[in-house]
Amino acid sequence: MTLLSNFAETASKKFMAIKNYLYKHYGEEPGKMLVHTGVLSWTLSAAAQVMAIAFNDKISKKEKLFLIPQECADAAINILSFYLVTNAFTNFGVKLVKTGKLTTPVIDKFIKENKVQNVGKITTDISKNMSGELLNEFKSLKSGVSMITNTIGSIASCNILTPILRNEYAARKQKEILSKDGNPKIVSKNSKIQLIKPLSMEAYQKLAYMKFSGNNLKV
Amino acid sequence: MSLAGISSYIKNSYLYRVAKNGSQKVQQTFYDCIPNVSIGSEKWQKRIKWVGREISSPENRLILGVSALMSQPFIDAHNKSVDEDTRKVSVCRTVAKIIAGTTTGVIIRYGCIAAINKWSKLPSSVDKIGQKIKLNKLNTFFSPSNAISDISEAMKQYRKTLGTILSLFVMSITNFAIDAPLTRFLTNKFIEKTGGVKNDTSK
User: Fold this and answer.
1) Looking at the 3D structure of chain B, how many domains does it have?
2) What was the pLDDT predicted at B105?
3) pTM
4) The domain containing residue A135 runs over which residues?
């Protein structure tokens, strides 16, 4: 009983520490929260997809040996491209406000009156000596700008960059499978893999329905 | 060596400092090209602040879904490496997947954030008519101990963060329980509506 109560107490303390951490770190940075939860969402969706393949009796062992590493490679592409692009856009927004590149007239007045040094330098934080209403004004502007740049980054990575990278990778892999299964043969031309015939309906549907996500799952 | 020790060792290494300085120089050159701007219009200031205050993960998911619907079906429709029937199924499947994923994604995110709002009350929390809320184990289950005001911006963002994290775990299950069958159902409906395909193997 003592062991159980000790465990409950430790778990309770850890849970409180997690809540306090989330409050402290994401309370003022909604853009950063969206980047981190986005990475978590891609990770969970990939983990769920791998589990679904691993425990699916209809998929043979041989297919699993191919599909699971492929899913892991997909996940790496999704997570990396999402994180790198969206995080860069979000940080860009935050730095525009932090360095004093993007201001409101009230913040601009503060910079001039206090003769803030190095405005526009990426290491500068103009909010260092701010307090009260002015600090709230600064935080609201930073939140808004980071959310806008985060959304632009998410659209660019989720709807443009990631599908292109993933499709390129998936197309190469599918051509490899089809060539092995006696389907349309591949030839090498100018060091690029090309199909003699386009992918057939039957082959496409077989591949598409084998996995629910079709390499495009986002929770 | 502890994690903090390793981190400090890396940060003090010559290579790390060279890489950091190089990265900062590139970034600075980029920022130097951007002119300083002061947003004079009060209307625009209000709009930007509203985005930071009100837009969170459900709205972000909705924006991503709508923009995906405006771009991805067209990418699929112009995919020359597959035949015509395949293109048709591919477009139907993409549209179905975006609709199913966005609908469940937005609803579950809103639901989880609402649940966290109910279960993260503070001593300063009041109900709709201004009465103090009686605290119990359930309605304080997700309350942080370092928060003071229930109506502060930080508390609002905290609830959205925790709600989003909770929704991601819920969606790991609903992806297969709801999204997958709904996607298949919608795909078949869209294929039917567009006149079917010659060589259907999906049924």
Assistant:
1) 1
2) 92
3) 0.77
4) 29-168
